[in-house]
Amino acid sequence: MMKLTLNFLALVCLCAFWCACHVNGDEWENAGRQEILLNKVGDWVNDSNKLFSDEKDGEFSVRHMVHFLCSHTIKIMPGRKYSFTAEVAADEELKNAVACGFIVSTALHEKINGKHFNYMPDSLMELVAPTTEKQDFILVKSHPKWKQFCKYGFNLVAFNAKADCSDLPNMEISSPIKSITEEGDNLKITFEKKLYAKYPAGTAVRIHRSNLFYFQLNQAKPKQQWQTVGGAFEFPAKAEYFYPCLIYYGPKDKVVRFRNMRLVVE
User: What's the predicted TM-score (pTM) here?
Assistant: First the structure.
């Protein structure tokens, strides 16, 4: 519950600095491979309002609940490839992981919530029975991954999903999953609220995550040795701008260090 509250607060804070600094991607349109180091104090904002224990160019030290967000919004250019990496370390191996990812917005700088494109892999299924907007459940064929994914209250279901993910960002989403029960060969997925529309049997559905306001690339538990998180990524449809982020939820007395934040455009 604490993490969900923090994520909600983060969404509010994002609006405060979204247009603070804009990097125009047009300047890279006709260029070759570009490598941008984001290692200056002004390149990052810690929107969790936790002071840096050691704020200096090149290396940052943070602690506790941290949303470490790039202060530049970057225009996305079709046909270009993007990757973002950073190095993380700590004085000792920590149990909590640092997540690396990015946040996207539309041409109007409206942020696209992560629940519309953060999907669970291999979760594409079909409705075995039609639904109406007056019911709060769906029926799908029993599937071990659905049993696993539906255990978590922060998941929901997207409708009219596509196998090639061309529906992303998918705006036809349910409320959070409330429970899952077996009914013969089927699974009954019950939601916190009624469905917003009716769907025929055979409609493709997919499980999405609702607890992330960002798109997560990967994560790693900090160790004494520096290690790299991040990598190449693709943007969902309708995304026009983005900025990288590093997310960490950990104890107050443990310091995590970031360095060599690097954006590559090809």
Answer: 0.68
